[in-house]
């Protein structure tokens, strides 16, 4: 029995089905912007000059994500179909401020928290016409005058409904 368990764990590691930290299967699959569109029908814009771009998707949750660096700041943006406004950012903090906002034609909210020396910013918005929820988040230590809403406006691509 012990040999079978060791064999199974080794096989999972070889096949890339487990992470070294947790031993759990990684639900994220690397992709491209086109792969995200082809597989899930989802898209996100990127600002000109974005670097370190990494696309991934979680097919089981129909969620797409892009991580990138822009103007020296690291961003994570997500999109997922959902009938209602919900937090898909994966950022679970006690928010110090929460401000209503508009991204394109969508109602949203911008949140800010402080944890230690880090400032965490998140913008969430829901497109009621397409049923898509969006988020963009940043964790940084020195973001004086930073405006997460500017990034949200660039990332949001209004998709057409049928």
Write up what this structure looks like.
- The model is unreliable at 1-19 (pLDDT under 50).
- The N and C termini lie far apart (54 Å).
- The chain is globular.
- With 162 residues, it is an alpha+beta fold.
- β7 and β8 (132-140) form a beta hairpin.
- The protein has helices at residues 2-14, 33-40, 148-155, and strands at 29-31, 51-58, 63-70, 73-81, 97-103, 106-115, 118-127, 132-140.
- It folds into two domains: 1-28; 32-155, Protein Transport Mog1p, Chain A (3-Layer(aba) Sandwich), CATH 3.40.1000.
- It has an eight-stranded antiparallel sheet with strand order 1-2-3-4-8-7-6-5, covered by helices on one side.
- It is 18% helix and 40% strand.
- It has three helices and eight strands; from the N terminus they run αβαβββββββα.
């Amino acid at each position: 029995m012990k040999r079978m368990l060791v064999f199974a764990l080794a096989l999972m590691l070889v096949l890339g089905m487990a992470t070294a930290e947790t031993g759990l299967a990684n639900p994220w699959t690397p992709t491209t912007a086109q792969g995200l569109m082809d597989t899930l029908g989802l898209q996100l814009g990127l600002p000109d000059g974005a670097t370190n771009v990494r696309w991934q998707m979680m097919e089981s949750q129909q969620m797409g994500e892009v991580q990138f660096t822009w103007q020296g700041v690291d961003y994570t943006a997500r999109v997922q179909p959902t009938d209602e406004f919900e937090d898909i950012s994966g950022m679970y903090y006690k928010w110090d401020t929460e401000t209503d906002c508009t991204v394109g034609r969508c109602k949203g909210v911008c949140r800010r928290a402080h944890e230690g020396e880090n400032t965490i910013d998140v913008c969430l918005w829901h497109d009621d016409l397409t049923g898509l929820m969006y988020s963009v988040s940043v964790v940084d230590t020195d973001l004086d005058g930073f405006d997460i809403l500017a990034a949200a406006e660039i990332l949001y691509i209004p998709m057409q409904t049928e």
